[in-house]
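Write out the 3D structure for:
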Amino acid sequence: MNASGLGQLSGESFSDSHVIAWAFGAVVAVGLDRAVRYLRESRQRKTERKPIDSPANLSTQHLLDTIVNSIPSSVFWKDRDSVYLGCNQAFADAAGLADPAQIVGLTDFDLPWSKEEAEFYRQCDRDVMERRQVILNLEEPQTRPGGQVEVLLTSKTPLTSEDDDVIGIVGIFSDITEMRQAQAQRDRLLVEAAELAQVIRDSPDEVFIFSRDDLRFVDVNQGACDATGYSVEELRQMTPMDLRPDFDEQEYRSLIEPLATGEVSHLEIQATHQDRDGNTSPVKVNLHATDYRGKAVYVAFVSDLTEVKRLEQRLVQAQKLESIGQLSTGIAHEINTPMQFLHNNVSYLNLCCSRLFGAVDGLRDIALQADSLDLAAREQLVADLEYKFNLDHTRRQLSQAISDSEDGIDRTVQILEAMKQFSHPGVRERSGFDLNEMVQSTLTISRHRWKDSAAVEVDLAEPLPVVQGYPADIGQVILNLVVNSVDAIEDRFGDSGKGLIRISSCEDNGGVVLTVQDDGGGIDEAIIHRVFDPFFTTKEVGQGTGQGLSICHDVVTKMHGGQLEVDTVPGDGTTFKMWLPAEAPAVEPELEPSVTDQQLAMLGF
């Protein structure tokens, strides 16, 4: 038997274990050659009525049958015309036969295989017999009784007589369908893995793989090199702390401890990375623990947030301007009211001036004639002047008109200052502000929005600690909370009556707390967990973008390191509670203002 023919017809190479298995099968096939000859001779002796029923013969016969039927692979043997002489139980099962004896006298055309398969098998039989060629590990299809097509790995060897004449073939095959399916699946997975690895390697997002032991980078992708300015070889000598100069190893390990201990499966961190030239950029880091090339590692997927932060700032400013636009009619009305009585008072003051100047002129004439008039005449002239110019009424009303005008001017200035403070873009540096003043300013510019729908009760603790943060953005938060309360009250009561908004402040836990409570319809418990999600809104299309509370949450938590919580009783109202630390953490300043000071000046702010 020549083992060099291994796989020659299947066109594939096989593993060492495969070679050994099928070499063993070939040996069994050769052994079967002798076994079949013995069986054939036994049948011939039986035909010639020679005794074969000795215990030795019966024992050998039983032994051969046991050996053949215990082989897990399917074994068969045919005569020179490819007519089956016998098979083992495994072959009978594959052919849908109850007993191996049923195979005798059948051909491949009598079995469940397709016509094309039967012709192919017979052609292989002829090649083996005519060329005396052993076929090893030929991969071929076979249709089973149920109609399913299996994949076989077949070996065949010529069956010869004692005179070395080829009188048939012996074959053995194994069903390798599942193995081939597993190989195909493995090949697909390998291709997909290679493609995915290439996608990750070429991705503009940064991918860092670093050791859990010493935190040194094991591998990085091209995006990491482009973002940091370092080569792969340089990064492999570095650790995450080289990209985060504000962290040492102890701080970094403390940060990722929940991941290291298995408390969480992944960790999301917002940080600042520094490139080779010292430039910094905000990034989002998604970390998870895994194994890579036999090492325990962390994998970090890093996204640059520079553009995201810029868009967030623009979105915040757009939300502010949207709120101003929604309130513009009311603000115009609020300004128009004091301006109207200012106009009326100025007209009245002009009249008073005319009266006073007329009285002064009359008194001057009386004074010039003092030598020629007695006291009674002078008194009468003065009385006439007072009556003519209505000086008593003017004296009573003039002071009130001036006081009312001062109030109107103060009210107008207050509204304009509140608008300027609210609409001004976020400052680049933090500044101290009084939360109570922010509340009063917000109520001032939103008065027209709530005065017809709700009564506002204010209970502000004095004094409050000065908060270091971003006042314009906190003003946006307060306005959104107030407007949301008004909307909830209007949804519940409509035109039937007024609701109530309670606003209170106090000092707590090293910071300040602002509570905005309303008696509107509340929030459905099924959706309350989504109120801070971006673009989530219960309002009709065109009445809200769903960005208000999302932006509020980001301003409070991300920009100020605070907390914004919501509590609701469906049907009875909602309470928002905002806590701000007295000292807000440092955050990345706005990269590009969406509204400049010059533009605000052009708008009159």
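Confidence is low (pLDDT under 50) at residues 1-35, 49-55, 540-547, 588-605.
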